[in-house]
Amino acid sequence: MDIARALIGCLVVCLLAAATAASAPPAIEIRSFLPVAPICRVGRPVRVAAVIANHTQTKRTVTARLIVPKGVRIVKGTAGARGVIEDAWERSFMWTVEAERPGEYALACEVADGSAGASPSRVVTTVRFEKPVPVRRLSYIPEPKPVKTDMLVGAHNCPLWEADKPFMWANVLKHPERTPALGFYDQANPEVSDWETKWAVEHGINFFIYCWYRDGQGGPVKQRFGSAIHEGLLKSRFARHMKFTIMWENQSRGQAGVADERDLMENLLPFWIENYFKHPSYLKVDGKPLLFIYRPEFLVDDLGSVENVRRAFGLMREACRKAGFEGLWLLGEYRGVDRRHFDLMQSLGLDYTFAYCWYVPNNPTPEQSIAAQMDYIRKTQETSPIPQVITVSQAWSGWHDEGTIWKIPPPQFETLLRKAKDFARGLPPGQLGSRMLLLDNWNEWGEGHYIAPYREYGFGYLDAVRRVFSDAPEPHEDLIPEDIGMGPYDMAYRKHMQADAELRRKCSRKVTKPGHEDPGLVAWWTFDEPDDSDVALDYAGHRLGGMLRKAKRTRGVVGKALVCDGGCAAVPANPLLSARDALTLECWVKTDRRGQSNNWMINRVLQGGVTTGYRMGLVDDKPCFQIPLTEWSHHLTGPDPLPLGRWVHLAGTFDGKTMRLYVDGREVATMDRPGPIQPSELRLHLGSYEEDHRAFFTGLLDEVRIYKRALSAAELRARAREAGPGAE
Prior knowledge:
CATH class of the largest domain: Alpha Beta
Number of helices: 13
Low-confidence stretches: 1-24
Shape: globular
Largest sheet: 10 strands, mixed
Distance between the termini: 47 Å
CATH architecture of the largest domain: Alpha-Beta Barrel
Strand content: 25-35%
CATH superfamily of the largest domain: Glycosidases
C-alpha cells in the first residue's frame, strides 16, 4: 500500500467529528481535504488527499472532483475520480498538483453520490507553497549556522511527543493546519533534536526551556516525558550549538514535587546537578545555572511552610556553589498580577518571576492579544517586588479548545516581539530581564501555541524572531527534511495509526443482542467477545465498538467483564455519543479496593472543559456522576462508599433539568442542572479516565449502556434485579 495514502487514510480515520447529537452528519461527508506533506514547495509535486466518509448502511458510489485555481495544475490523476465506499466506512482519493510560484492557493473538493435530491458536498482548503529549493541527497543535516543575537532568547519546549503516546496528537488532528514540518514525530530521535536545534539557532533562539516531569516522590528520580532531553538532545550531533534549561513541572501534587527537604537535597537536586547543570550545554548566566519552577507555591505544602521553602532554596544555592557554580538562579512561574502572589514569591526566596504563557480572555483579536500581554508585562513591573523575565505568547486554544481561543499571525507577532524587546531593554541593566526574553512556545501543538515550522505559516514565526533579535542578512535558506532526502520522522505514529484503523474497522461491525430495541439506547458494551479479541463491540447496533488498550476480560456479572487495572476500551468519537437533552449511564462494577478517588470507569470529560460530555467513577470511594456545566462543575456524589466484594449496579440519569444517581436501583443523590449537555468531539473511555492515565478504576466493569433518555426509577430497579448483588 502507498504509505502516504495509507497515512492520510489512517490519520483521518481518527479525526474527531465536529458534530452535535442534534444534527447528524450528512450521508456522504468530506472528512478531510489536505496536502500530504506539511510544507509544500513550488515546482515540486504535492499530493493532495480527500477522505470521504459514507455514513449510510449501504455501499455508495461517489465522484470526487478536485478544483484548482490559476497557478496550480494537476500533474497526476484526473480532476474527477470515481469510487465505491463501503457502508459506514471511508476511503481516500488522491491527486498530485504543482504550483508555479510561492503563495497561498485555495483548492476545492466536491463530492457527489448521485442520490436523488442530494447536493454535492464541497470543502475548500488553503495550501501554502513555499519558495522553491532544489532537492539534494545529503548524508546528514547540514551543520547549523547560528546567528548572533543582541540578547538571550529562549523558547519553552513541551516534550510530550513520544512514540508510545500517539493520542497526544489528538487536538492536532482537529487542527491539521498545526501539523509540524517533521510530521507527528518521535522526540526521542536525535535527528529530530538536530533539526530543531538547526531551526532554532539559525533564527536567533539561543536556548530551550524543557518542561521536566518527575514521576513519584521520596526516592530515586524517575521521569515522565524525559526522552526529549535524554534520548534526543543529549545524544544529538548538534547539542553543542544549543543551550537548554529545565522547568520543573511540579503541579501534580504527591507525584511531581518532593516528599520533604531530604528528598529535595538527596534525590532531586543531585540528579539535576549531575545530569543537567554540569552539562556544557546547560545555560548558565554569571556562572549560575537557571532553574525554572512551574508552581513554586506548591512547595509550601511539600516542605511545610514558607520559611522551609526559603531555607531549602538557600540550601540549593549552597549545594550548587559546592558543585563549582557561582550559585543558582531560581525563577517562579506566575501569569497574573496579584500583589499578594508576588509577595509570596518574594517570601519564598525566588530570584525572578516569569510566565509560561499569558492568558488572554474572550477570544481576542491579534491586536487585543498584543495589548493584553503588554499590559500584563507593565503591571508586573509596577506590582511585583521581585524582578521579571518577560515572556511573549503566540497563541492559545487549550488541549480541547476549551475557553478562550486566539492566535497572533507572524507579522503581528513580530510587532509584539519588538514591543517586548523595547520594554526589556528599559529594565535595570543588571537584571536577567534586561538580557533575556522568553518565547511561548516552541512546540505545544496540542494546546495551541507553537513557533516551530509547521503547515500553516511555515517558518513565519521563526523568521520574525530572526528579524527582531539578530542582524543576520536576508534572504536565507530554510531547509526541511524533504529538501535533502531525509525523514520521515513519524514512522512510529504511522504504524500505530495503521493498526488503529484496522481496529476501528473491526469496532464498526454491526451487531445486536436481544434488548437493543429500545429507541433511546445509544450504545451497549457487554465485553463478551472471545478473550483474545482486541475490540469490545457495541450490541446496540450502532457500530460504536471500542478498542481494547492494555485490557483483558474475566468472568462478569453476565458473561464476561472488562478487567480495569490501568487498561481501558477506547471508543472512537462519534456524534451519536453526544446525547444532548437527556442521558443515562448504566453499568455493573465490582471492586475489592478502597482508596479510589478521582478514578473513572466511564469518561468523556477531559481537562475540566465544559464541552467534554459526561462521566461516572469514584470520588473518595463514593460513586460519582458528572455532567459539567462550567469547568469541573456538577459532580453528583453518593453518600456512601461503593460496596466491596460484590457486583453493584450503578446508573446516572439526566432529564434536562435534574441529575440523579442510583446504586443497586435505589436513588441516592440528586442535583439541579438546567440546560443541555454540550456536545463533545472526544473519544469515550471505558475503565479509565483515558489511555495510559493514572485515574483508572480498579475492579471489574460490565454491561455498560448509554441512553439518550433518562431511564425511570422503575426501569433501573428492574435492571438492578436482573443479576442481583450476589452475581458472579
